[in-house]
């Protein structure tokens, strides 16, 4: 738990160093540190300690990508958290994603990390690889992504979806395939558009 949160914290510091100097970007989300404490006289000899966050606790992103959270896309903190996820994804070439961003205002805690390969740079994430795939499919860039010059994930994902339908034209009995491919391609769009 400490390793995950403090690793994400290091990424957040680098993100802050790039984002804060940008005109109009403003405050940047901070992942608070978490510490491991040894208490040898206690029944449970190890515990984690972190700063107490006072205020409304909000989940800006979730581990499984299934929960639609309007505060994620409508609030400044939520948009900046999504931009942070996009930034980490791009900086690691899609190999790592900070997930489960939650906290009070711009102070975040109890985050998760998904890695594309087990042991990415010696780090084992605590979330499924599928979270990276879901993020790539569902992320909607916002003005903060644009300020940082992040590449849209939408065009990459759409190209991947179009590739199978192009192959289907060359296959025998393509009328059957043409009926199934658009349906499969339509399902993610319907899910994505529900977030608008």
Automatic annotation (TrEMBL):
It is found in: Basolateral cell membrane. Gene3D superfamilies: MHCK/EF2 kinase. Residues 184-196 have a biased composition (Basic and acidic residues). GO terms for cellular component: basolateral plasma membrane. It holds the Pfam family Alpha_kinase. Residues 1-153 form the Alpha-type protein kinase domain. GO terms for molecular function: ATP binding; protein serine/threonine kinase activity. Residues 156-196 are annotated as: Disordered. It catalyses: L-threonyl-[protein] + ATP = O-phospho-L-threonyl-[protein] + ADP + H(+); L-seryl-[protein] + ATP = O-phospho-L-seryl-[protein] + ADP + H(+). Keywords: Cell membrane, Disulfide bond, Immunoglobulin domain, Kinase, Membrane, Repeat, Serine/threonine-protein kinase, Transferase. Signal peptide: none annotated. InterPro entries: a-kinase_dom (IPR004166), Kinase-like_dom_sf (IPR011009). The keyword Nucleotidyltransferase does not apply. Residues 167-179 have a biased composition (Polar residues). Its EC number is 2.7.11.1. PANTHER family: ALPHA-PROTEIN KINASE 2 (PTHR47091:SF2), ALPHA-PROTEIN KINASE 2-RELATED (PTHR47091). Protein kinase that recognizes phosphorylation sites in which the surrounding peptides have an alpha-helical conformation. Regulates cardiac development and cardiomyocyte differentiation by negatively regulating Wnt/beta-catenin signaling. Belongs to the protein kinase superfamily. Alpha-type protein kinase family. ALPK subfamily. This is Alpha-protein kinase 2. The lineage of its organism: Eukaryota, Metazoa, Chordata, Craniata, Vertebrata.
């Amino acid at each position: 738990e400490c390793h995950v949160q403090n690793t994400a914290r290091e990424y957040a510091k680098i993100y802050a160093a790039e984002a804060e100097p940008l005109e109009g970007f403003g405050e940047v989300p901070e992942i608070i540190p978490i510490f491991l404490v040894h208490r040898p006289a206690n029944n449970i000899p190890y515990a984690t300690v972190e700063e107490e966050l006072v205020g409304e606790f909000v989940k800006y992103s979730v581990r499984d990508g299934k929960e639609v959270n309007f505060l994620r896309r409508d609030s400044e903190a939520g948009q900046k958290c999504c931009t942070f996820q996009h930034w980490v994804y791009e900086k690691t070439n899609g190999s790592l994603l900070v997930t489960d961003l939650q906290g009070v205002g711009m102070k975040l805690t109890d985050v998760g990390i998904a890695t594309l390969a087990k042991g990415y740079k010696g780090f084992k994430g605590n979330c499924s690889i599928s979270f990276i795939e879901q993020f790539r499919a569902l992320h909607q860039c916002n003005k903060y992504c644009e300020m940082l010059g992040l590449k849209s994930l939408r065009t990459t994902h759409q190209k991947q979806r179009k590739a199978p339908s192009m192959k289907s034209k060359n296959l025998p009995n393509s009328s059957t395939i043409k009926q199934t491919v658009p349906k499969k391609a339509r399902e993610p769009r319907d899910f994505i558009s529900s977030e608008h």
